[in-house]
Description:
Chain A has about 270 residues and is mainly alpha-helical.
Amino acid sequence: MTNGPPSSLSLKLAAAAGLLFLHLPLALIFLYAFTTEDKSYQFPPPGYTLDWFEIAWNRSDIWKALWLSVRIAAVSTTIALVLGTLAAGAVSRSRFFGRESISLLLILPIALPGIITGISLRAAFALADIPFSFITIVLGHATFCVVVVYNNAVARLRRTSGSLIEASMDLGADGFQTFRYVILPNLGTALLAGGMLAFALSFDEVIVTTFTAGQQTTLPIWMLSELIRPRQRPVTNVVAVFVITVTFLPILAAYYLTRERAEVAGQGK
Amino acid sequence: MSAGADTFGAVDRGRGGAFRRLSDLLFRQPRLLLAILLGPPILWVGVIYIGSLFALLVQSFFHLDDFSGLVVPELTLSTYAELLRPSNLDIIVRTVVMAAVVTIVAAFIAFPIAYYAARYARGRWKALFYLGVMLPLWSSYLVRVYAWKLILAKEGILTWLAEAFHLTWLLDAVLAIPVIGGPSLSISYIGTFIVFVYIWLPFMILPVQAALERVPASLLEASADLGARPSQTFRSVILPLALPGIVAGSIFTFSLTLGDYIIPQIIGTSRLFIGQAVYTQQGTAGNIPLAAAFTVVPIVIMGIYLTIAKRLGAFDAL
């Protein structure tokens, strides 16, 4: 759609209010990371201090949880990148029976509530006598990360002209060379964006993880336990500020990587 | 240019032999290529996800022996009979009602944002709107739930605001409403509801915006040319075309609310939602069959929902 008559004031207000509703709560977290009050959520904070950052920095349990989360997200993202690209390649290059169902199958792990994925995996691990470990967490995470990579890759492949691939083949490149020199450079930023989103998704996941982690503590699980049984509330705030920053950066980067294409897609037909 | 030269160089070197032959084989046998591409992802999701789902469904037909506290692996429907007890039915109804209300309210809040972003926002504003929706969508779920704990707590910012504006009576009146009220907003259905809407809102905005962006401007001009007032155009042209987007968004808001167990645990009353019932049944109670039977409820509801959504063309708006 293009510009019609100027928007009404009430529409502007409703849109602005909606966006504020989405963002103001996050701003509060930053404020509370500096409060001197550590027993309650008193507002306005009675005083401000930087001490909690130092205390959080020296907590070894936070570092351990963070390191576990990073490793899980890295491995899950790698698996999702491979599987998602393969599926996207298959769906965009050919027509076959059941093609429509592939998207549905891949989207199912995030379309159905996370608790279903979680308890299913737990039930399956119990039946197969698989003990909880690093791998059981990764199995769950990679499953729901695939669709993120897939969506990004499929959208990009749809916009990549097929004649480019034909030209490459006509000029004598074999399938692997075409992939390496024509398809991959075209797909690169989409995969990077999908990978970063998958990383953010895995880094942040808590519902499935509670079912597949056993005694292990990822950063979200650490936060959840602090929310239910708080020990030092401001420390939780500091970690929350850290998590917000860490997840914002890849999202911003993913946006700028796919931006031009997104504008094209947004033109509407 | 250098990339092109590179390519030719690679071709000139003549990677004959195995690579070339394999490439030719795959070119002549597109089915084989397809199988190679599709095999790993289908196997992964099929075995790990669908397989686990199946393992869970099978367990819902087992039952828990009341005396030994062990799961008896015999096929029976007694667990489903247990699921239909009044106390369990309460949990199901409570969750479905909450999911429905959350979905409807999220659609109302999301529409103006999506409409403005799709129709009026241009250039830098468009980017701002897009990021404004994407950042909360991808940023930490737990952190965002936690933010509301700070806001809704009895000593939190909302109580402070009410005092500052001399509206404490209003807050008290809201909290005094039977059933949905409570001692403080963070221990009431209202609190749970607000947080659900807040957390799932981006899932509603994005598909609605995508659907609105696909509405051709010429259609709106035609409607105006034919004498429709803006409100008529909105009702009979824009809204029907936005509907698939709204349905697509509702898939997420509805499904995510049905299965969530963390939000009502952190902000809400002690009365359970389906997610919490599943969690307690499989955890402390050790009753995996009943937990499995509970998860069948959202699966069945979402199955029906997805079928209807597909008919309404919602998948094209995803």
